[in-house]
Amino acid sequence: MSMLQIETDPAGMDPTAVPVAPERGMVGRSPGRLAWERLRRNRTAMVSGWIMLFLVVLGVSAPLVELLYGIGPYEQFQDRIANNSLPLGYLGGISGDHWFGLEPKLGRDIFIRLVYGLRTSLLIATSAAVITTAIGIVLGIVAGYLGGWIDAVISWVIDFALALPFLIFALAVMPTVTARFYGPRDEIDVPFRIAVMILLFAMFGWTGTARLVRGQVISLREREFVEAARASGAGLGHILFRQLLPNLWAPILVTFSLAVPGYITGEAALSFLGIGIVEPTPDFGVMISNSLDYMDGDPMYLIIPGFVIFLLVLTFNLFGDGLRDALDPKSSR
Amino acid sequence: MLRFLIKRLLLGALTLFAVSLVAFGMFFMLPRDAVATMCEKNCNAERLDRMRDELGLNDPLFDQYTGYMKGIFVGRDLGSAQGGRCDAPCLGYSYTNGEEVTDIFARVIPVTLSIVIPAAILWLGLGIGLGMLSALKRGTVFDRLAIGFSLTGASMQLYFVGGILLIVFVYTLKILPPPRYVSLWENPLDWAAGLVLAWMALAFLFSAVYARLSRAQMLETLAEDYVRTARAKGLTKSKAYGRHALRAAITPIVTIAGLDVGGALGGTVITETTFGIQGLGRTAVEAVRLGDLSTIMATVLISAVFIVVANIVVDLLYAVIDPRVRLS
Amino acid sequence: MTEPLLKVRGLTKHFAVRQGAAGGKALVRAVDGVDLDVHPGETLGLVGESGCGKTTTGRMLVRLLDPTSGSIEFEGRDITRLGRSAMRPLRQDLQIIFQDPYSSLNPRHTVGKIVAMPLEVNGIKPPGGIKTRVQELLELVGLNPEHYNRFPHEFSGGQRQRIGIARALALRPKLIVADEPVSALDVSIQAQVVNLLRDLQRELDLAFVFIAHDLAVVRHFSRRVAVMYLGKVVEVGDRADIYERPRHPYTKALLSAVPDVAAFGEPRQRIRLTGDVPTPLNPPSGCRFRTRCWKAQDICATEEPALITRDGSAQAVACHFPEPAGPEAAVLVPAQATAHVSEVTE
Predict the structure, then answer these.
(1) I want to staple C288 with a disulfide (CB 3.0 to 4.6 A). Which of B206, C165, C230, C250 is the partner?
(2) What is the DSSP letter of A62?
(3) Per-residue pLDDT, A124
(4) Which domain holds residue B153?
(5) Could you tell me which residues are beta bridge partners of residue C18?
């Protein structure tokens, strides 16, 4: 550059010293606000967000729905079941009284069982997602920021956990853990089964978040704003939680929102295989597992729960994708 | 390269060793052990103890572990209560029907491979092809349909898809027989007819994931400067994309495919259960229901071996394709 | 002359890196025995090519990196090995401005929060409150104090750099290390930021260590200049001496590479250095510049030249065969150099 140019510059007035953004009040639009505005413009994400919200509210308020609907999840309507154990009427017994029809043989109402199944599924999936995300954040930040042998150990454990076949391992863990607390012929409590499933997901699920957070922290660690904080005398706590964490919320939120449908699928799969929730507790996986016996005569028994769980997972996935696009506009699908 | 290979093999062996420790520790440190599940009636303490003795469960844990490991590599004598001599690779005897676990596996692993291998070829071909094409035709109707397909597949449940396929092809259209396994060498046509629904179900779900991945990968590669340069210097579209973009885009996808063996194994467990085909997965599920710990343990080990070996193969392939890996 | 504010002696930083197939450790001698003095209120320019160790030196001065050996004295006190808590009061006197206006501001914090961070970390409650102080600082660096609640992404590169400067000023430091503060900016913005720094220096009586690879920017801003090559200071002196009468061959070569608008159109002689900068993993013996120097003799390979003043001139130079001191010296190109010198007509 030329010296003349500097010397002739009028004493340090910066013509661009007004913000580039148009003046619209004096409060700046935070990255979070901007993301929210982008999300609101994404029609797919908003529609799936509303459906998702509707399903969540439906599941959470299951007892209230039962009250309004007037039928409980364990009530049997044997008078509407034919001798071949299939429900009377068309399409699996769909009627004004039983919106989604009846289960073959036992004659329980499918709609209310789905609502309760929704509740079980969401309870397990969100708890597992919260726990795995928390573990993943802590271990990821520790490994990424401290580095050295701590990082090496955590990274090896992550690789190790990824080398374990989840479903097979789950198959193995479930009976051994229950055998630890229950005799071979004891009835196993539903809360216990739920707890074991959440534990299983926690054991395997944290690795993804930990890996992501670790990578993010490693890339942020060397940023100059972290050095600026250190140069001002900031301690480890300030750097990790005040400087780094606010930059991690976006990827964490995205993994969380995409982890929930993953665990919904996982829970249903375990229950489908008979190692998760069992009869008579209402559950998607159990229902579909039962429905396989009646595919020939009553396909609606498979199609209705299958479609509901598909819708649940799909809306969560679409919303999660939308969230990612909104939080990280550079990444295109 | 040799150094890399040795390092990778050692790491794989270490992982397998750790898996065996975890699996073994989990099963045999439990206070309520296998005999309680095996003993149907008349279970008094004396009888349980005698059964434990026969199974070697009263030995120190270390001896049990080394015994088990020795069985795998050189075979061992298990005493008359358990069927006597068990040749390498010995995985013990099923606690429920006394059959050698190795024999069970020899029967069911071909079934599982008959499901997974053709399905994997289908889902990789379909997924990668669809993803690449939709990246090249970005924004067209075809692209939108492909995105819809992959979104649907990614949110579908395997047993739901399997059930629908059964309802449509077996119960409604009646163009396929109920799923079953016939050996490929016995009758290839029956083999295919019995398993085609399982392949379709797996391929639909898994190809969705790969379609999505390869579309994103391809779009990224197409935006690279060197691909644009190739186009700019006058290479035809197909040549530029075929020669430069495709290879760069496909490498990471193949890696992911190799790392996904665990997912594929999980997939076959559900597929076999849905279609009632007796493969490794269904055997494992039944072993769990019956509390047959020796079979479960062997299943965990064998799956870990599959995964670790697949990872090593992928790493080596990657090192061959991408010299940067070797140097790092 | 007064007692220096910052006195650096034998400052050294070696990084261990893994190297080769055997995975053995090797040492990168990034900074190797640097001596510097900075007096209150003055600016020391630190110039050199990328990779010469100037940024590492700057990081060590504010204790973002721990030196391998050597000492740093601030106001007569040795701060080389002070722990974090002992260092804290000194952090208020020693601040840093970074090169990259994008990565140096936390994208999730408002400007107010960024500028207030040093106050918050050190538990300082300025009279009138933090907000008032932050707004004062924003005004001081030429930003609208009402933009307190905006986020970094709403500002241009030059404005972001001003925010970084405001943050460095928050603790009223005595010395600021400016690590290439303008090299990431557009040329037209560079001048504005440099002028701002110069005005601030006058107003607040700040001392600066101004790190740059751009000789023109350093000349504009610095009273004294130190030239670094491969982890060592090869020449240090007053601005006029360094720019008008460089004595080290490397300084001379660097200066000859700067296009001079005043001499536009005239044929001028430009020294072309041949070869690459040697790796700091295995620097040459003796004088580190000898592999690219047209004056190198046997002694340069065996004996390392000390950084000393010679021939009655004030500038210190680390060379066995320095250019002669004197006003006309720079104009002449030594006869031995002809093989390396090419005529360049611009």
Answers:
(1) C230
(2) H
(3) 93
(4) 105-327
(5) C25
